[in-house]
Design a protein that fits this description.
The protein is an alpha+beta fold. The chain has helices spanning about 1-15, 20-30, 35-50, 85-105, 270-280, 305-315; strands spanning about 55-60, 65, 75, 120-125, 130-135, 140-145, 150-155, 160-170, 180-185, 190, 195-200, 205-215, 215-220, 225-230, 235-240, 245-250, 260-270, 285, 295-300, 320-325, 325-330. The radius of gyration is 22 Å and the shape is globular.
Length: about 325
Amino acid sequence: MEERIRYLFRQYLENKCSREELEEFFSYIRASDRDEVLRGLIKKVYEHMEQMPSLQTYVNEEGTLILTGKAGVSDVTVPKNHSRRRWLAAAVIVLLVAAGSVLWRLNTPGRHHPTLVTASLTKRTTEPSEYKYLLLPDSTQVWLNASSSLEFPAQFRSDKREVTLSGEAYFDVRHTEKAPFIIHTGRISTTVLGTSFNIKAYPDRQHIIISVSTGKVKVSYNNVPLATLVKGQQVKVNSRFNTVVEKEIAPAEVAAWQQGNMSYEDETFEDIVADLERLYNVKIRIDNDAIRALKVSTSFRREIGIEQALQVLCKLTDTMLRQSDGWYIIQ
């Protein structure tokens, strides 16, 4: 089995895994949570691979596994043209850190364990036009959209798992019956046990939008329940929390941004423009105040580019687009 794990590890690092090998390796990692022998084997393979110069792998002063070859460790930045296989390969590297690097630190006499302090928090952020894949301490997967941040502890409590989100993210939460997963976005909290869903909660938006693709989600404001959502349902909460709108959506639309689909339904013109600024990392000014609150429904592919996307919006709103000193100006 040790040779098999070593083989799968190298296949991942070189991005050569077949789908069957991918599933096999994930099964080993998941099983190591409950199997001491398997966990020891993974640790042994980790230490062996870490010593191989061809992988350019080493352990820094804090006991963190560093890969200076094809991918990073604690989080993975994903440009828009990377394939899903690359995302999965990156996810496995992160899993190996959880199953290998942490074990290495726990079993090294006298080594300081700064990342295992329960009170410490980790914050991951994305720049405009940047995405990141994150694997949380409980193996929950998170895809963080542009100009967003997620704050989470180095180790979750046994009775609940809490994170704080600003911006947009898609969550695939690992099921834990006795420890609900809670996402805080301002005064709104979203609670789940094991499900996949999307939250859009940028500070400058008029609405917080929560959409569910699997499982069940409870949405609350200051601990007062607002809605309970299941697969294919969405809730839109006004930023002043005086309106709550629920509707049915196609599961494929829950996190359309992951596939490069930009979809808006009854969104304000101002919110859509703010979205485009984040996604394309550009500066846009609305000189026509009359259209800021105008409700717009449209969709387009991200790769059409900022100019064509803005032309679509201008055509829908009977406005004009011009450029000046690095700004896109709508009037």
